[in-house]
Amino acid sequence: MPAPNETPRGDGIPEGISLDARATWPPPELIQSFLGDADVDFELRPGEEVAVHDDPEAQAAARQFRDVLGCFASGITVITTMSGGEPVGMTCQSFSSVSLDPPLVMFVPARSSRAWPLIQRSGRFCVNVLAADQEHVSGQMAAKGADKFAGIGWTPATSTGSPVIDGALAHLDCTIHAVYEGGDHYVVIGKVEHLEANIAEAAVAEPLLYFKGRYRTTDS
Hints:
single chain, alpha+beta, 7-stranded antiparallel sheet, 3-stranded antiparallel sheet, globular
């Protein structure tokens, strides 16, 4: 289902995208070249899929970086959008709030992400905050070459039409506000157009967390 406001400008870019975001907009002919060959489309440990020089010192430094960052427990989200009338999704650990006024959030996809170019080109996305019983959703949304939405129910978000995954604790419906280069990643700032907690789920469910290489939850 296409997003309600998916009418592009004359240059092919949807309305509501800031100049910073448009400055890095990928033309259609480059989308396929951006997709890469990674087996997965996410990183639960920062930098895990980034190639490191074979120098032993560089490898040791990279391992220390990954291990130390793995000590930061975080929630798990799935970032979704619509592209060509089809749902797109990617698992994302690197998500954070940024600003209350205006309401901004942030997620950080790797340059090698297969889903990110499609999300960027759509100009909109939805952040789905996963519940403890949705580990299978996290894994499926990270798989390469599979129907990521097979067996996963969803409904269109209120503002952008991006998929809201059934059973998620909450979702934030966003337009892309700005995109910045950040080493081997992009820093994506989204403006929140609508947000909602799933009261029925949030009242009884625990969040899906990731800590030191394992899925966790707050339930003891």
